[in-house]
Amino acid sequence: MRFRRQRREEVQVNLTPLIDVVFLLLIFFMVSTTFTRETQLQIDLPESSSDQAQLDQRSLEIMVDSQGHYAVNNQPLLRNDSDTLKQALAELAGNRRDQTVVITGDAQAPHQAMIYALDAVGQLGFTKVSYTTRLPDAP
Fold this sequence. Notes:
Blueprint: H1 16-32, E1 60-64, E2 70-72, E3 75-76, H2 82-93, E4 101-105, H3 111-124, E5 129-132
Parallel strand pairs: 1-4, 4-5
Antiparallel strand pairs: 1-2, 2-3
């Protein structure tokens, strides 16, 4: 007796509909995306209308003048770099990293100098950081 073998169809996955759906999603997201222009931001610093916060007596104060020179607790630093700033902060703080660090910057201070100060504070492990601002002039 002869049995006929049934022919098996080869299983094929048709990728064409999947590719079409992916392209339609790509086109949809490209068309619906909005792009903002970050260069149009206008910032006027450093004024604040909030009440003055009480500062801890054992806080460290970093001052940045309009040329980007640093002073820690009213003592100007010899060099104007982040390593000198970190060294001065480490000497004054000792092992206490729980004290508040207050960063006071001139309104005309370079932004990079302020970022160096904030970065130095973060690298040393201080978690309480505050910025000082001035009240706006009364009309």
